[in-house]
């Protein structure tokens, strides 16, 4: 599949508006282009935030000011920020996997059942790999396994 027409087709799709493509066949080229762009935008925002955190942590000027309470507060804030960035790093991996599924032609279909995940679910969670029903079954199995421990 050629990526250029897909990118051009997204020009007529409003950001965050899956309704404009909802009447098309499921995972049509325009829908795939829409979700590709949504994933790329999300990935870029996460990477920009990560770079801002790195830049902030490299700025040594804030280490010279404040007493022990200020330093402890700063360190706690930095630790929280680093945990958040680690979650973002894992999210970027999932975004990359979703982009790979688009390229492979598997995007939008449940990895357990092969059924469509659905536009509404993908709009809410574009990295979803399971339909709502399959996700509920997985969570039920996990809860039961945790109870049996």
Automatic annotation (TrEMBL):
Zinc finger extent (dksA C4-type): 110-134
Database matches in PROSITE patterns: ZF_DKSA_1, ZF_DKSA_2
InterPro entries: DksA_N, DksA_RNA_pol-bd, DnaK_N, Znf_DskA_TraR, Znf_DskA_TraR_CS
Pfam families xref list: DksA_N, zf-dskA_traR
Membrane-spanning segments: none
Superkingdom of the organism of origin: Bacteria
Coiled coil: none
GO biological process: regulation of gene expression
Zinc finger DksA/TraR C4-type domain segment(s): 105-139
Protein's cellular compartments: Cytoplasm
GO terms assigned for molecular function: zinc ion binding
All copies of domain DnaK suppressor protein DksA N-terminal, residue ranges: 31-102
Keywords: Cytoplasm, Metal-binding, Zinc, Zinc-finger
Cellular component terms per the entry's GO annotation: cytoplasm
Described function: Transcription factor that acts by binding directly to the RNA polymerase (RNAP). Required for negative regulation of rRNA expression and positive regulation of several amino acid biosynthesis promoters. Also required for regulation of fis expression.
Assigned protein family: Belongs to the DksA family.
Oligomer status and interactors: Interacts directly with the RNA polymerase.
Listed name of the protein: RNA polymerase-binding transcription factor DksA
Organism: Halochromatium glycolicum
Gene coding for it: dksA
